[in-house]
Write a structure and sequence with these properties.
The complex is a heterodimer of chains A (302) and B (322). Chain A has 302 residues and is an all-alpha fold. Chain A has helices at 8-51, 59-66, 77-89, 99-130, 132-137, 139-144, 154-163, 169-192, 197-205, 210-244, 254-263, 267-296. Chain A folds into 2 domains: 8-74, no CATH class; 99-301, Orthogonal Bundle (MetI-like fold), CATH 1.10.3720.10. In chain A, helix 1 (8-51) crosses helix 2. In chain B, helix 10 runs parallel beside helix 11. Classes of the chains: A mainly alpha (302), B mainly alpha (322).
């Protein structure tokens, strides 16, 4: 930004005007469009089920009715917000009516799977960088798997782990794991190879061992490649954990919440679960971005 | 690093090693030793270990050869072949339950047996939901991106929000899409449109900024107007961005359609097949459906790479390749 640095307050104001204001306006416009859609989509049902039986009605009644019909086609934003709020406040944390309970269930399997997938990806990428055989034989398959919908094998993983007697967190974590693992491996191989020849040769002249070269040069050089992959990985892991909750008929978790909502036509419940999973995704990614700033710190600005 | 050039005897040795390994592997697969009925003696394990050693030696030697890219692809192919072989050998010889892991031949048989079903599923999921949703979503993202090119205010508002959507499990809208558009493919296409729209929008906006100042000033000195500059400079410069978005979107579209079918679908579709046959423990067909999805993804990706070489031939990442 080419702001004049005469006054920091002025800079903040300009920043607000140029960056925050447009986003706020877009959000506001989307909310208005959402309300308009709510009225439009719910009007036929509201007229038929609420207004017609009561006799003559005005457009004010119609407006009010579209926002309060049971099982609306599209609930209004404030309905979703109220449902979300009441689920968070009116129920204890261990009740299935509380969305935070489902967030905890899904978030737990996402994080466990994410940790396992990242560890596996790190180990494998170190092996690939140090072994020409693995590099030539295995890496092409891992790269190719990026273009394949690997999430499709989630039901297979569930069946296999189910027959082996695993249930609960484990199957979901495994699916989240293999979704995180691919991007981390590919990015880390790229990152571990990013040091220049001259840097590797310098460590060689210091008689550094392979491990020292890995620890002192390759790992730090790979971090800027690792973090974007971690952000992609944790988002993919969340989708994996949610999808893993579908075929098992799981009772808890955001995916299960979505599914029961669609079984019983509880549209408000679906929307609040959806908003909650979006918030969870944003929080997880923001946490990764926070860790990235902590670890890379000033390096990023250079 | 081992960087000696390949010499003829070296390659010949490697090839003989690979062929020897494959021949021994074939022999063991058909020997009575590997028959499920015979008890697995030490001899079986010795033979298996021997073949594994041969396999690893062959792959190692092939990987060590420098030279044409052909050798690198051959290494990967050989590795894949060996994985398939041991998969086949262990599942058959050790009688691994089919539910756990069906042998590759069994998956092949299931594929051949249910060819008609899988064809219907392919049409339902890929030809209808994925192709339409992918084209519509990517097309909309592109059009919106170009349309707001001259509105920096809208760009600054949309770009952060569009980037944020990549962290949201968008596929969760599937139950809502089913309610609005019914059980059939339109609801899946709608999910795909939503999932592919934002990556394309972000890439289009980034791509349109890709041409640098010098090039734009050159166009200006030619007295080229906005449209001419867009058409002759900025869109071609954006091509690598657009194609990489198409690649990302192709995978996203397949995932979106398949997962949306997990939420509810009519009686056909790859996602439907995978989820219902998995609950019926008919794993051969499940693996066959997964293979169809995987091959579709790879073929589309390969086609897009070929397209990239044609339309973005000038880009440094492609220019070097023949």
């Amino acid at each position: 930004m080419a702001t004049t640095t005469s006054s920091p307050a002025l800079g903040v104001v300009q920043r607000l005007g140029s960056q925050v204001l447009p986003v706020l306006l877009i959000v506001l416009a989307s909310l208005l469009a959402w309300y308009a859609l709510t009225v439009y989509l719910n009007a036929p049902g509201a007229i038929e089920r609420v207004l017609e039986p009561k006799g003559p009605w005005t457009w004010r009644d119609l407006l009010a009715a579209t926002m309060s019909v049971p099982r609306p086609v599209l609930p209004a934003p404030h309905q979703v917000a109220l449902d979300l709020y009441s689920s968070l406040v009116d129920w204890p944390l261990d009740s299935p009516r509380n969305l935070l309970f489902h967030v905890a269930v899904t978030g737990q399997s996402t994080l466990v799977g994410f940790a396992m997938g990242t560890a596996l990806g790190l180990v494998l990428s170190v092996c690939i960088v140090h072994s020409r055989t693995l590099d030539r034989a295995l890496l092409p398959w891992i790269v190719a798997s990026q273009s394949v919908p690997v999430l499709a094998i989630a039901p297979i993983v569930l069946v296999i782990l189910g027959t082996m007697g695993f249930s609960g967190v484990a199957p979901k974590a495994v699916i989240a794991m293999y979704l995180c693992f691919f991007p981390v491996t590919v990015a880390m191989v790229q990152g571990l190879r990013s040091p220049q020849v001259i840097e590797t040769e310098m460590l060689h002249t210091y008689a550094a061992t392979r491990w020292q070269a890995l620890w002192l040069l390759r790992m730090p050089a790979a971090l800027p490649f690792l973090f974007p992959a971690l952000r992609v990985g944790i988002a993919a892991g969340l989708v994996g954990a949610m999808v893993a909750e579908l075929p098992t008929g799981a009772q808890a978790g955001l995916g299960a919440r979505l599914l029961t909502g669609s079984y019983y036509g509880q549209t408000v419940q679906i929307w609040s679960a959806l908003v909650m999973s979006a918030l969870l995704g944003l929080t997880l990614t923001a946490a990764m971005a926070g860790i990235e700033t902590l670890v890379l710190g000033k390096r990023k600005q250079l | 690093m081992n960087t000696r050039p390949p010499s003829a005897p070296d390659i010949r040795w490697t090839m003989s090693l690979v062929v020897l390994g494959l021949a021994a592997a074939w022999a063991l697969l058909h020997a009575p030793l590997a028959d499920p009925q015979t008890p697995k003696t030490a001899l079986f394990w010795v033979a298996t270990a021997g073949i594994a050693t041969l396999a690893i030696a062959g792959i190692r030697r092939l990987a060590a050869i420098d030279g044409p890219a052909m050798y690198a692809s051959a290494t990967a192919a050989l590795f894949g072949l060996w994985i398939l072989y041991f998969w086949q050998l262990f599942t058959v010889a050790l009688e691994v339950p089919r539910v756990l892991l069906p042998a590759p031949t069994l998956i092949g048989a299931a594929f051949a047996e249910h060819l008609g079903t899988l064809q219907t599923d392919f049409v339902q999921t890929v030809v209808k939901a994925v192709a339409l949703g992918w084209l519509l979503g990517s097309g909309l993202g592109f059009v919106v991106g170009v349309a707001i090119d001259r509105l920096p205010f809208l760009q600054r508002g949309l770009l952060p929000l569009a980037s944020l959507t990549s962290t949201i499990p968008l596929v969760g809208v599937a139950p809502i899409a089913v309610m609005w558009f019914g059980f059939d493919w339109p609801s899946k296409a709608a999910v795909v449109v939503l999932m592919t729209f934002f990556p394309m929008l972000v890439s289009t906006l980034a791509g349109l900024q890709a041409s640098d100042r010098l090039e734009r000033e050159l166009m200006h000195s030619y007295a080229a107007g906005y449209q001419r500059t867009l058409w002759s400079l900025r869109l071609p410069a954006a091509m690598p961005f657009l194609i990489s978005a198409l690649k990302v979107n192709a995978t996203l579209a397949l995932i979106g359609a398949i997962v949306a079918e997990f939420f509810g679908s009519p009686t056909s579709g790859l996602g439907f097949r995978i989820s219902t046959e998995a609950t019926r423990m008919n794993m051969g067909l499940v693996w066959a459906a997964v293979a169809v999805a995987a091959v579709t993804g790879s073929v589309v990706y390969a086609a897009l790479v070929a397209l990239e070489r044609r339309v973005a031939f000038w880009h440094p990442s492609i220019r070097g390749k023949k």
